[in-house]
Write a structure and sequence with these properties.
The chain is an alpha/beta fold. It has one domain: Isochorismatase-like (Rossmann fold, 3-Layer(aba) Sandwich). The strands form two sheets. Strands 5-2-1-6-7-8 form a six-stranded parallel beta sheet, sandwiched between helices. It has a two-stranded antiparallel ribbon with strand order 3-4. Helix 3 packs parallel to helix 4. The longest helix is centred in the C-terminal third of the chain and has 15 residues. It is globular and about 50 Å long. The two termini are 13 Å apart. The relative contact order is 0.20.
């Protein structure tokens, strides 16, 4: 059973969004080719789905500006602009994404006291989203993942997939992903490779 996991391909992370990733919208046509390739038995998408006033928002911390480091639940936390607030257009999937052919949507980031980069669990690693259990129940043996942003939510999802889905081949689709910072992207890819994540391009995935 082969699965594709699309990470946070939402308006908020695309140009014009509240936390835009440079060229974030360029992943959409590549993701759609993967979805429509017929190579995947299961297509899953994660969706950042924050309550208003989430603790990762700089606006929730007087005196803090976006992209400063603060604390959340006693741990260092990057302070983000308000983004992907549940029920807003910013949290919607990119309108060109072929969401009709997505089999399962995993929402994350709903606890205001902790951030959730990974699609599998909160950053404190205490609360699970249930995605790993779902993929195990479906009998997934191979997982390709991609989306936004490489150096945050994609990386942490890939590392958690390796840890939480033992025996499953995990691959990162590089050209179907974009990151916030080029240096951070290089470091993230290096870390994923070191932890056993395959680094591929969409052409390899579609070719089988």
């Amino acid at each position: 059973m082969k699965a594709l996991l699309l990470i946070d391909i939402q308006n908020g992370f695309c140009p014009g969004g509240n936390l835009a990733v440079p060229e974030g919208d360029q992943v959409v046509p590549v993701a759609n080719r993967l979805i429509g390739s017929g190579r995947y038995d299961l297509v899953v998408a994660s969706q950042d789905w924050h309550p208003p006033g989430h603790g990762s928002f700089a606006s929730s911390h007087p005196g803090k500006q976006p992209f400063e480091v603060g604390t959340l639940s006693g741990k260092p936390q990057m302070m983000w602009p308000d983004h992907c607030v549940a029920g807003t257009a910013d949290a919607d999937f990119h309108p060109a994404l072929d969401i009709e052919n997505v089999d399962f949507i995993q929402q994350k980031g709903q606890n205001p006291a902790v951030d959730s980069y990974s699609a599998f669990r909160d950053n404190d690693q205490a609360a699970l989203t249930g995605l790993a259990e779902y993929l195990r129940e479906q009998g997934v043996t191979g997982l390709d993942l991609c989306g936004l942003a490489t150096d945050y939510c994609v990386k942490f999802s890939a590392l958690d997939a390796v840890e939480m889905l033992p025996g499953v081949e995990v691959r990162f689709v590089e050209d179907a992903s974009r990151g916030i910072d080029s240096e951070g992207v290089r470091a993230a890819i290096g870390e994923m490779r070191l932890r056993g994540v395959g680094i591929i391009h969409s052409g390899e995935a579609i070719a089988g």
